[in-house]
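re: ur question from the group chat, yeah i did fold both. here u go
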Amino acid sequence: MASDFDFTAVTASLITANQSTITAVQGWATADAEQLATDAGWADTTTPCVCADDDDFLFLMVNADASTVFSYSALSAPFKTSAAQAIAEVDAYSATLSVSGRETLAGLVLADDTGPDLAVASEVEFGNLLAICAPNSSVIDFGSFTVDASVLIGIQRLNTRDTAYILTEAGASDVTGPIYDVADQDEADAIVEAFFAMVKKKK
């Protein structure tokens, strides 16, 4: 397959210094490559997109980094609400990586391992990603069961040890792995009660 970018006009030392990012973006779908060139303000945005000079190249590298993200659109809204803190932690870890680093990480745990939008296709994939990016974090997935928003924020901030503790105290049916599925409203209420009991005990 032909490369989507032509970097002939770019200084060799810049090419060498950014080779991992170049390799990553050359593997993107054509539409994504053309959008990247557009976002970087290139004059030539049709494949193969021809880089005019070093400045255009550097703009492209910056935009490639900014646009390479984990995408959670496939996850349900209730799950994303329950996992908001964990998602933020994954994204914070991701921000420390290069473009190629994010794609390499995606390749370990996701079916989609080519940017810019690295799609997290399921809760299982998110759990695998979480185990690498934030291994001391977990998610109690309350689904559509009712939990006060401020209480949910407190529960989201628990480490894995405290999460396991309140689940055990509540007699929850799912107490393994980084993501715990709440069975029903009674179980949700029991988890909240166990959370408050733990907070009271720690004071």
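okk and heres the other one u asked abt
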Amino acid sequence: MNKIINIKSNKAIKEIREFRDKLFAPCDVKFTNVHMRELNTIIKTELFMKNDLYINSTTLWEIMHPEGGSGSHNYHELMPEDIFNALNNLCDPQCVIKVKNERYAVIPAYVSSFTEPLMVIIELNSGLILNKNANVNKIVTIYPKSNLNDYLEKLDEKEILYKKNEHQYRLQLP
């Protein structure tokens, strides 16, 4: 069973908060109205073939818990509002980076409650809990990225698919 959250809805933050409070059974969460295909125009390539994003409920729970480690993910202490704002601002990225294989990092022009930009790692053509062949855009993790400019300077130019120039770039404060 999937849970659907319309990211443009007034109820979206409340619904995300329910996952932080672990009011769920393990499932996949589908975020609608994210408009991922709009990024294709910005990055000038047909990378995202679907508009929606999915995340495993356990991953969503973990990224909202106090910093530290866990099994396969780190806890990042994100607020539900951080996730809501990051997903609502994905189509206005500061940059888009090819991380590895089918994984891409999208850094929205939004500053989290940590006063740092968030890095959203998305895997293309991913499977779901109950459908391993689902072929969806899946959020692997979301975390605050400190020293973003230093990180970008160390990357190979081919890995950076898009980066706003300084005149375009203006981070949105929460």
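fwiw on the second one: The chain has a mean pLDDT of 88. The chain has one domain: 2-163. idk if thats what u expected
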